[in-house]
C-alpha cells in the first residue's frame, strides 16, 4: 500500500506551498485519476492517520476523481475503456487523455 | 478569523497550485536518468508479480550476453538479499534494496544505491522492482523503459485486473512458456487482455530455462539501447 507514501509527499507539498506564511491549512484539494494507481479510499484512510501532528491536521481533504478517458491522438475519437486500445478508423494506438492525475490542485488557507 | 466586524468568520484564501504530488520523486528520477545516460547505461525498470520470473529472466539474460557486455542490477525486496545474490552468481554486478514494509522502489532509494554501484563500463542496468503489480507502476525511477514480466501461470485476465501496470509497460515478457504443454492456458486470451489495457502491446514470449529462450528479448534490448543512444546524439 503506497498511499501512505503518497500522503507523505502530499503533506510535504502542502508545507512547501505554505512556506513562511502565517496561516493554517483549512482544506486540501487533490485530483486522482482512475489510472493513476492510487486508491482513493486507501488514500483517505492514510490521510486521516498521517495528518496528525502535521500542518494538515485540521485540513479536510477533497478528492476530484478523474475517470480514465482514452482517445485516438490523430482523430481525437474517444476509445471506450475495456475495448481494444486502437482507433477503429486509423489504427493508431490510443492515448490516455485523462485519468493518470496525482495532482495537488489547491489549498485553502485560513489567514489571520 | 474576521476581526473587522467581529462576526467570527474565518478568512479563507485559496492558493492555486496544480503541482504533481510526486514532484520530488519525479525530480530525483530525472536526476537518476541524466546520471545513468551520462554513463551510457540503458536502464530497465523490471516489474511483475512475486514469482513471475523476474530474477530468472535476468539470470538467463546474463547467460545470453556472452560477449562481455557488462550488466548491473538493483534488486528490491521487502526482506532478504537473495535475488541480488542470485544475480551476482549469474555474473551481474548487483546491489540489494531491502524495503522493509514498502511495497515499491522509489527514485530516492535507487539514487542512494547508485552511489554504491560501480557503473564504469556498464551497458545495461536492470532495476528489479518489488514483486507487486500495483505500487511500482506509480513511481518513476529514472529508467529508459518499463518492462513487465507476466508468467503464463498467472491467469489469462491478469492484465485486466491490473490495468495501470500494463498501460505503462513498454514491453511485456510472457515468461515460463516452456510450461504451456502442462497447463490449460489460452495464450491468445492473454494477448487479447493486453490489447485492452496496453495501447501498443508488445509481447515477447520467453522460456528462461531453455537454450536460446530469451534471444528475442536480447535483440529487443540491444535495439532499444541503440535507439536511445541515437536520440541522445541527435539531441
Overview of the molecule:
The complex is a heterodimer of chains A (112) and B (235). With 112 residues, chain A is of the alpha+beta class. Chain A has one domain (3-67, 98-111): hypothetical protein PF0899 fold. Chain A has helices at residues 3-18, 40-50, and strands at residues 23-33, 60-66, 69-71, 78-79, 95-98, 102-111. In chain A, the strands form two sheets. In chain A, strands 2-1-6 form a three-stranded mixed β-sheet, with helices on one face. In chain A, a hairpin with a 6-residue loop joins strand 3 and strand 4. In chain A, helix 1 (3-18) packs across helix 2. The mean pLDDT of chain A is 95. Chain B is of the alpha/beta class and 235 residues long. Chain B has one domain (24-234): P-loop containing nucleotide triphosphate hydrolases (Rossmann fold), CATH 3.40.50. Chain B has eight helices and eight strands, in the order βαβαβαβαββααβαβα. Chain B has helices spanning 23-38, 54-64, 82-89, 107-114, 158-161, 163-167, 187-195, 215-234, and strands at residues 11-20, 42-48, 71-77, 93-98, 124-128, 145-151, 171-175, 203-205. In chain B, strand 7, helix 7 and strand 8 (203-205) form a beta-alpha-beta unit. In chain B, helix 1 (23-38) runs parallel beside helix 4 (107-114). The longest helix of chain B has 20 residues, at 215-234. The model of chain B has no long low-confidence stretch (mean pLDDT 93). The interface between A and B is large, with 38 and 36 residues. Strand 6 (102-111) of chain A pairs antiparallel with strand 1 (11-20) of chain B, so a sheet runs across the interface.
Amino acid at each position: 500500500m503506497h498511499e501512505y507514501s503518497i500522503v507523505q509527499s502530499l503533506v510535504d507539498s502542502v508545507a512547501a506551498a505554505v512556506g513562511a506564511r502565517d496561516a493554517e491549512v483549512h482544506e486540501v484539494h487533490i485530483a486522482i485519476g482512475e489510472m493513476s494507481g492510487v486508491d482513493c479510499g486507501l488514500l483517505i484512510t492514510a490521510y486521516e492517520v498521517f495528518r496528525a501532528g502535521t500542518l494538515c491536521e485540521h485540513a479536510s481533504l477533497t478528492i476530484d476523481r478523474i475517470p480514465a478517458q482514452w482517445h485516438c491522438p490523430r482523430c481525437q475519437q474517444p476509445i471506450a475503456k475495456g475495448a481494444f486500445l486502437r482507433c477503429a478508423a486509423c489504427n493508431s494506438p490510443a492515448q490516455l487523455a485523462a485519468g493518470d492525475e496525482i495532482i495537488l490542485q489547491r489549498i485553502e488557507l485560513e489567514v489571520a | 478569523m474576521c476581526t473587522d466586524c467581529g462576526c467570527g468568520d474565518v478568512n479563507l484564501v485559496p492558493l492555486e497550485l496544480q503541482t504533481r504530488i510526486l514532484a520530488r520523486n519525479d525530480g530525483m528520477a530525472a536526476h537518476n536518468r541524466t546520471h545513468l545516460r551520462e554513463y551510457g547505461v540503458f536502464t530497465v525498470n523490471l516489474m511483475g508479480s512475486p514469482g513471475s520470473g523476474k530474477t530468472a529472466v535476468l539470470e538467463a539474460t546474463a547467460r545470453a550476453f556472452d560477449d562481455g557486455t557488462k550488466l548491473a542490477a538493483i534488486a528490491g525486496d521487502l526482506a532478504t538479499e537473495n535475488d541480488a545474490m542470485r544475480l551476482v552468481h549469474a555474473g551481474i554486478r548487483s546491489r540489494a534494496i531491502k524495503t522493509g514494509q514498502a511495497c515499491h522502489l522509489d527514485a530516492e532509494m535507487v539514487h542512494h544505491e547508485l552511489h554504491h554501484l560501480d557503473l564504469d563500463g556498464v551497458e545495461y542496468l536492470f532495476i528489479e522492482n518489488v514483486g507487486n503489480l500495483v505500487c511500482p507502476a506509480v513511481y518513476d525511477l529514472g529508467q529508459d523503459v518499463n518492462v513487465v514480466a507476466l508468467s503464463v501461470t498467472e491467469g489469462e485476465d491478469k492484465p485486466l485486473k491490473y490495468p495501470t501496470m500494463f498501460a505503462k509497460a513498454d514491453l511485456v515478457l510472457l515468461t515460463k512458456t516452456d510450461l504451456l504443454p502442462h497447463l490449460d492456458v489460452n495464450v491468445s486470451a492473454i494477448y487479447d487482455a493486453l490489447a485492452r489495457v496496453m495501447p501498443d502491446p508488445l509481447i515477447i514470449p520467453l522460456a528462461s530455462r531453455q537454450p536460446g529462450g530469451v534471444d528475442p528479448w536480447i535483440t529487443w534490448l540491444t535495439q532499444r539501447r541503440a535507439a536511445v543512444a541515437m536520440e541522445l546524439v541527435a539531441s
